[in-house]
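so my prof wants the structure for this chain in the tokens format not the other one, which i didnt know existed until like an hour ago. anyway here's the sequence
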Amino acid sequence: MEEKNLNENKINQEETIFDINEELPEVKQIEYAIQIKDLYKSYGKKDVLKGLNVNVKKGEVYGFIGKNGIGKSTTIDCIVGLKDYDSGEILILDTDNKKDPLKAKNLIGYVPSEPVTYEMMSGNEYLQFVASSYGMIQSSFNNNYNFLIKKFGMSPKDMDRKIREYSHGMKQKVCLMASLIHNPKVWILDEPTVGLDIMVYEVLLRMIKEFAVHGRTVFITSHNIELVSKVCDRVAIINDGKIETLLDFKKEPLKRRDLSKIFFKIYREEE
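here's what i got, hopefully its the right format
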């Protein structure tokens, strides 16, 4: 296929997916992939985030958990630019997501809790469409596309079918691939296991670990405590608009098995 930009706007270099060696020198010097500073967000008179502070290190899998309606998805929506916030600051690899939203969004791969696609397109067409929005060149797209369909067990024939013909699990796979097609530095997952069949679940676990091993960062919120305790390096439990507890499983590995107890203890004490 002709070497061209999918959106006619060329980028400077080709990327191999998950290749940390292609990082720019200025990015290598940055300590945190995500910084949330004193974040406030309300809906009318209801205060949801009340001075939230989060520091997510490069190369780690960071869990962000809490009960329903506590602000997890609101936080993710603020990070990825789907919602504005009242005050505070969000930096993605030192890029302010309000001052330079396009650059910040290019650094992020985002997976919503429910698969959202254009169902009249084929899987291949949808990924081409997503890639074009990031200005990918054709060879980069081809490399990443072939890598991802193999990883997620989707054949070229599957990818040529219309998305409306897909099962829920196949739609989830396409959404996961779409979030990674542009080779992001930060992967943000909002309830990624909702509706996943067991085979896709196992693929997701492997991909999360592989993503972090290659120096990238994963920010994940989930009600699946088993998933969070299994893959995360650190876990923050949010309560009343702020971080209530921050667990570091690298420093205290035995707390992985106690995560569920710690979680329920926090919310029982407030009742």
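also thought this was worth mentioning. The beta strands are 32-43, 46-57, 61-65, 87-92, 95-96, 108-111, 186-190, 217-221, 234-239, 242-248.
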